[in-house]
Amino acid sequence: MDPVVVVHGGAGSRVSPEREERVRQGVARAAAAGYRVLTAGGSALDAVEAAVAALEDDPEFNAGCGSVLNASGDVEMDASIMSGRDLSSGAVSAVRCIANPVRLARLVMEKTPHCLLTSHGAAEFAAAMGVPTVPGEQLVTERSRKHLEREKQKEAQNSDQQKDRGTVGAVALDRRGDVAYATSTGGIVNKMVGRVGDTPCVGSGGYADNAVGAASTTGHGESILKVTLARLALFHVEQGKTLEEAAVLALGHMQSKLQGLGGVILLDSAGAWAARWTSESMAWAAAKDDKLHVGVNLGDTRVTDLP
Ligand SMILES: NC(=O)C[C@H](N)C(=O)O
Fold first, then answer.
1. What secondary structure does DSSP assign to 64-131, as a single string?
2. Class assignment of domain 4-75+83-89+142-305?
3. Ligand 1 binding pocket includes 70 (Cβ within 6 Å)
């Protein structure tokens, strides 16, 4: 089986020209990191964890360092990971002071009998696993501070569903034919303390099943939760739709029912893949057959050789 990895850097409003190249390079680096794991014989799970951790470490994206701030000015993050081999999954929600929530989600999957740990329970588990904490401020960027300030100045009920771009995610297929997904986010800016979005919820923030494929989603979390976007997209694949058609149908349903905007990356166990969004833009990158495909806005895909 030829390995494939696809990543996204979040659906949202148009990326400013000043940031576009950095965002493009960020998703390209993450896809290349995931692909290296796969070509060295690593598992799809290892690949999605590596790709998402790279994006969490990149301050351009709304996950890990660079996460948006909640109403109290703090970072609270959600993440999940799932193996399509046996449907095992792990997730964390509302976690603070952790550099890589996706790695903690993987530990929940592998070291506990549970699927999701939240808030202080997740923090206790992280400490027991020897996961280092980082000072909260280390995850806060100048950009996220200004973002919260701007948001607080606006109307309380802001219905712009594109304002929270930057959630990150990955799907991968390894040489053994196993698929996996991981998704990680700081959520939505100015959210209530304790708000949990779609990202840690299996079926909404992502899904993986070797019998169908894998999906990772981004966009307005409350809408994604209501339509279980990742599972909905894979349902359409099960019904015989192509990945492109499945993504368009699932996103179209969310938009027509709820006016919710977002994006999804999909791959199937044969190695086909798709990246679609209904927001203005979504940074994404895909690595397959030693080629790297990268895009941010509609119709601007660039293809280069991977080293
Ligand atoms: N930008 C995003 O994808 C936000 C994420 N889906 C959330 O609502 O928490």
1. STTPPP-TTS---EEEEEEETTT--EEEEEEE-S-S-HHHHHHHHHHHSS-SEEEHHHHHHHHHHTTP
2. alpha beta
3. no
